[in-house]
Amino acid sequence: MAKVVLEPIGQTREKALAEGEWQQRLDHMHELNRRLDDERAGVRAGWGDKYHARVRDKGKLPTWERIERLKDDDSPVLPVGTLVNHGLEFEGRTSPGAGVVTAFVRIHGLWVMVIANDNTVASGSWWPQTPEKIQRAQEIALRLRIPVVYLVDCSGLYLPEQGTTFPGRVGAGAIFRRNAQLSAAGVPQIAGVHGDCIAGGGYMPIISDVVYMTEQAYMVIAGAALVKGAKSKKITSLGIGGPDVHVHLSRCADHRVPDDAVLLERIRAEVAKLPGSACDYYRYGGAPALPRHAACELDGMFPVDHRVGFDMRQVVARLVDDSLFWELLPDVGVEMIVGVARINGLYAGIVANNPQLTDHPVLRGQKRPGGILYREGIAKISQFSRACNDDGIPLIWLQDISGFDIGVEAEKHGLLGYGSNLIYTNSTNDVPMFTVLLRKASGAGYYAMAGLPYRPVLQLATPITRLSVMEGRTLAIGAFRTKLDDNFQIVADDEGKREEIRKGMEQVEQRIERDMDPMLAASRRDVDEIVTPHELRTYLDAAVTMAYQSIGHRRIKNPRIWSLHDLTALTGG
């Protein structure tokens, strides 16, 4: 009988890194983490204390407090899309988190996706990128088949910016299409309407399986302000579409409750009616365990200089249960690391770049740069990805990649073909894939290793992520290549021209460096969330657990009959 044998990986922090180097790395990361924490706090504050007070004066709870009451006491709140619209202003106004909170929480032990309008930001209006953020959360829930809870308190589109939120392919109307797709796939949707629910906000909860309304909530296609004669007739939005109408007459809602607190308890009770998690079934007798080497040590594992390599196995050791790992094909394509581990007691495949120098497979005594895709490594991760997909094992991609190998030998080896094979594999995989941009995420290598265009269920970044086609200096050389010699030195007839070219290259390099700020990537939704290194284990624990929570919608093989066993047998493993 084929067995999965997991072996210890990694070393203690004291053995892995000298004290001075460890402290330097830790101090650097802590500074970056503090910046991230400050930005998160700004989003959570919404438009500030004044607007929180307004919400409470209306007898309602601020959105983040609703989420805290909704979740299990021991559940973390794991936001997705926290920094969407970060740094942007619209006619002098900001929209923290695009005015909506999307987050994973546990309710009665089940992971759910919560989509909640932030009622402290323009009364929960939809801003530019709000529809896309909501749809991304719905897509994640659909891919994982986890329940969706909508906490609706939405005054409709932020009208001055309607041109970017209303008409397009991913405009506000696409949210309702996602509602329908979730319903068609049998994904539970539960909605609580807490207050304003106008126009698109009114449509969003309707397709849900169960809809609750508080006594001050209303759902209307158009509010009283747009109804002719409303003022003289003393018509209110509550009178047009409150619970008296929608619970008792139109039947567009199911239940009325007195206030936010009761509504949240009722939603928890609805989730409790759902089938329990399948995770224990798929642990096959295993039990969850923390990493033997603490996840908090990840903050000190990454060099301050992004050009310096590090030991990826030390990172894996701080992410997986009991720091145990079954590494496959360790002697082939050593620039890549592939294998299987348990996370929260559940099997997950791991594909990771090896950023360290490796021995050249042909030229004795020579080394090759790490973090680059060569032929053998590409073939190795293609086969591993296919086997995990066949076996139903969720895949985690840990990126620290500079791109594909280039040059004469690379073309002779047919890297274009091998790379296309890998891209085909990841484009057609059905198994849940989760991508982590640990540090560098460059060029076509970023695509090939399940970057966001290849539809991972979730893509995480860290405060040191560098997402771009190439590094700033390299890109500047490419942009000015006609003005450089073979050694990349400036070729110019006079000093003035030389200085002009030098300044131009410097400006390009600086612009690319600014573009690689992960905060900017998060603002544009090029990554789903920035997490600190010590938070990675928590997010991956939740992600893998959600991949196994719902039963019957994807293939999950018993470990005895994994294709991975065939792969190791055929290669002498």
What keywords describe this structure?
573 residues, alpha/beta, 2-enoyl-CoA Hydratase, Chain A, domain 1, 3 domains, 9-stranded mixed sheet, 7-stranded mixed sheet, 17% strand, globular
Largest sheet: 9 strands, mixed
Q: The CATH topology of the largest domain is what?
A: 2-enoyl-CoA Hydratase, Chain A, domain 1
Show unreliable segments: none
Tell me, rounded to a whole number, the average pLDDT: 90
Termini separation: 15 Å
How many structural domains does the protein architecture include? 3
Nearest-angstrom radius of gyration? 26 Å
> What would CATH call the homologous superfamily of the largest domain?
2-enoyl-CoA Hydratase, Chain A, domain 1
**Could you name the CATH class of the largest domain?**
Alpha Beta
In CATH, the architecture of the largest domain is Alpha-Beta Complex
So how many helices? 23
Q: From the helix content, strand content and strand pairing, which structural class follows?
A: alpha/beta
Helix residue percentage: 25-40%
What proportion strand? Answer: 15-25%
The tally of strands reads 20
| Apparent shape | globular
Could you explain the architecture of this structure?
This protein folds into three domains: 232 residues, 2-enoyl-CoA Hydratase, Chain A, domain 1 (Alpha-Beta Complex); 233 residues, 2-enoyl-CoA Hydratase, Chain A, domain 1 (Alpha-Beta Complex); 47 residues. 49% of the residues are buried. Strands 1, 9, 10, 11, 15, 17, 18, 19 and 20 form a nine-stranded mixed sheet that branches. It has 23 helices and 20 strands. Helix 5 packs parallel to helix 7, helix 15 runs parallel beside helix 17 and helix 19 packs across helix 20. The protein is 38% helix and 17% strand. It is an alpha/beta fold.
